[in-house]
Amino acid sequence: MAGKRTSTPYLDLKRRQMLKFAGASAAIGGFGLCSGLASASESTRPGDDAEDVLDVAIIGAGLAGLTAARDLHLAGNRSFLVLEARDRVGGRTLNFEVGDGHVSEVGGQWIGPGQTAVQDLARQLDVGTFPQFYEGRTVVMGGDGRLEYDLGGTFGTDMTIADKLSEMSHEVPSGAPWQSPKAAEWDRLSVGDWLATQNVQPEDQSGWDAALTLTGGVSVSKMGLLHYLSMINSADCDYEKLDSIKDSAQGTRLIGGSQILSSKMAGVLGDQVRLQCPVRRISGWDGEVVTLHTDQGRVRARKVIMAIHPALCNQIEYEPALPAARAALQRAWPAHSPARKIAMVYSRPFWREKGLNGHILMLDGPIIWAWDNSPPDGEIGIVNAFISNANLPSDHETARRTLMDIFARAWGDEALQPVAYHDQDWGRHDPWSLTCVSAIPPGFWSTHGEALHPPCGNLFWSGTETADIWAGYMDGAVRSGHQSALQVLNALRQA
Amino acid sequence: MKKLIVLGVVAGFVALLACYGRDALGLYRLMDHIATSSEAKEADSGSWPRLTDACIGCHGRQGHSLHQGYPSLAGQPAPYLASQLRRFASGERSNPNMGPLAMTLTEYEIQQLAGYFARQSAIGNGSFKPEAALVARGEQLAATAGCAACHGDNLMGHDQFPRLAGQGHDYLLAQLNAFAQGSRKDPGGVMSAIAATLSADDRRALAHYLAALAPAEN
Ligand SMILES: Cc1cc2nc3c(=O)[nH]c(=O)nc-3n(C[C@H](O)[C@H](O)[C@H](O)COP(=O)(O)OP(=O)(O)OC[C@H]3O[C@@H](n4cnc5c(N)ncnc54)[C@H](O)[C@@H]3O)c2cc1C
């Protein structure tokens, strides 16, 4: 029940092919990543010999870890390994193979203006982009109510309030919010505390909660104002570039699905990416050579790039214990952003013929936001939606029916004939993501900010959460990967 | 969304009739839903912004989870809820989602949240599809083991003893397994001791029975 994620009544064969694909997603074109314990006994791979000391071990084959590995590789270094817990690369990006070469994204999917690091990477890897579809009328639903409305590629935000936030964000540096001159004042407040002073009308309130849940990972009452402003700062101090569709961080998609970036990078690295290899314990991080204890034995390296977020770092055992400030940061790092996302697949995007854009905004229902996630040519119709975890049954079939009925109320009875359905809650699927974005609460940066960046011995902290711009996004992941590769190359030079 | 709703309020229903024609009924109902639901929320959990809104995504509206893996909080005894939140914060009960969230709560917020969810009435686990044979076996086991001695009449819970009737199946099973394996420990150690005597099959049957059990009126 809980384990079933996909149903494709008409595409079962395709699905089986997809699962094979997902099992070794980086194997497109037979790149031959080594995976599984079976290959652990071959002692020819770098890092296998206990005496063999690598220059660098990278923990995590998400966008951050693979970007770092790619940079090391481009710099001519071959003495490194990427250790990945799962049987696939991509981390919080994952393609759902719909069939006939079409994909939808299970995790991160959009890029937007100012996200130049991920844009450059896509160009270098020959991955094209296309606009998120929004032309036409959005359906707003609540209770029995239903309204079609053309929002013109926005979420219809009250711009008087948004403009104030944009203005304030100038004073909060994206990469180090705790260094803001206003830190003492603003880090005490939640976004809700601040909005409470802005005379937000009852009609607008749930809109703010939904917007903050989607972008910040929690409703307004537990979202830190200082952190939220740092996110707007990333978006060039322009609220609309953060939280809208057209010309915004939800405006552009990657052809072939976002996971393709990671798959392509891993393809070049071959068996320097080791799958199904979770790191459980790290010892001697304060000495010359660090030992990583994995499910496939020990790996020793001079420098380690930790390309996983702090709450994941907290799942690893350290010997000796990490410095108190870093340990406290990891223990307090929020991991409560709901991350249940679905895809409903139709033979064509039938809503477009009715002038509808395939988007739904729903008040008090299981859907937070649904949007048209069809492939570039609109050859088939795909709807993705962020789901309120516990407000939709977990049973796969019941969930599918419930959503189908809502879509039929929104767009007509054609919605009752989907060809596939996919449902994944990242918080429950496996222990290797835990959450979506980091919902940094009030007070967090003032207490823990200084512990985010400084390396501990030979451990270098990476992953999107450490990025100086667009932390939390795919772009931030790429930036943090570049940054940590530079750091370890310099540290090796000094050693 | 926000803009258009403001527009609705300002322009008034009559003017909108002209713009929306046959969609007017849908619009009227939407406006009506917004008005009644914001009044209901105000009465139920105070003025916006609401702390409880940070919980409903994973625990359901008013603490009624429709998901077998995320526990319902509705109708749990306030002392139990408060002590679980404190134990998540201290790390005595470990969970990567709840730990850091509970650390952000003040004692006042803990009391507010515990009180709020305890006030909501428990409802049946409607989306669970029980298997009759497992339910029967679970019922028998619960009677022999005397679960009700601590968890109260009809397993509705009281004080530090949680309500079990109608809780999510996957959640119940995960907790029984966690007690049995020692990854969750209760302060007195009684639940751990009880779970340790239950076989994996027993735990499955009990979770099944409890999830299917309709909460009694209290
Ligand atoms: C549902 C959802 C929607 C999102 N939408 C967007 C979006 O539209 N746009 C956007 O820019 N961003 C989005 N994001 C965020 C984006 O996906 C992430 O910011 C980005 O992918 C993070 O990359 P990363 O490499 O830093 O971390 P991750 O992708 O988390 O990679 C970490 C890797 O480390 C592995 N790992 C963990 N622990 C261990 C261990 N102990 N040993 C070995 N390996 C380990 C994990 O398996 C994983 O592969 C979304 C995320 C989710 C979940």
Overview features:
A: alpha/beta, FAD/NAD(P)-binding domain, Polyamine Oxidase, Chain A, domain 2, 8-stranded mixed sheet, 31% helix, 21% strand, globular, B: 218 residues, 0% strand, binds flavin-adenine dinucleotide
Number of individual domains of chain B: 2
Question: Can you tell me the overall shape of chain A?
Answer: globular
Overall mean pLDDT of chain A: 91
CATH architecture of one domain in chain A: 3-Layer(bba) Sandwich
- CATH hierarchy class name of the largest domain in chain B: Mainly Alpha
What is the overall number of helices of chain B?
A: 11
CATH C-level of one domain in chain A: Alpha Beta
**CATH fold-level assignment of the largest domain in chain B:** Cytochrome Bc1 Complex, Chain D, domain 2
Q: State the oligomer.
A: heterodimer
Short description:
The complex is a heterodimer of chains A (495) and B (218). By secondary structure, chain A is an alpha/beta fold. Chain A contains 16 helices and 21 strands.
Please specify the SSE layout and strand pairing.
The complex is a heterodimer of chains A (495) and B (218).
Chain A: E1 6-7, H1 12-23, E2 53-59, H2 63-74, E3 80-83, E4 95-99, E5 102-105, E6 110-111, H3 116-124, E7 129-131, E8 137-142, E9 145-149, H4 159-169, H5 183-186, H6 191-195, H7 202-216, H8 225-234, H9 239-242, E10 252-254, H10 259-269, E11 273-274, E12 279-283, E13 290-294, E14 297-306, H11 310-313, E15 317-319, H12 324-332, E16 340-346, E17 356-363, E18 367-372, E19 381-387, H13 396-411, E20 420-425, H14 426-429, H15 444-448, E21 459-461, H16 474-494
Parallel strand pairs in A: 2-3, 2-14, 3-11, 8-17, 12-15, 14-21
Antiparallel strand pairs in A: 1-20, 4-5, 6-10, 7-10, 8-9, 12-13, 13-14, 16-19, 16-20, 17-18, 18-19
Helix pairs in contact in A: 2-10, 2-16, 3-16, 4-8
Chain B: H1 2-20, H2 24-45, H3 56-59, H4 78-90, H5 98-103, H6 107-119, H7 132-145, H8 147-151, H9 169-181, H10 190-196, H11 200-212
Flavin-adenine dinucleotide binds at residues 59-65, 83-86, 91-93, 107-110, 278-279, 307-308, 312, 316, 339, 341, 426, 432-433, 436-437, 463-464, 472-475, 477 of chain A.
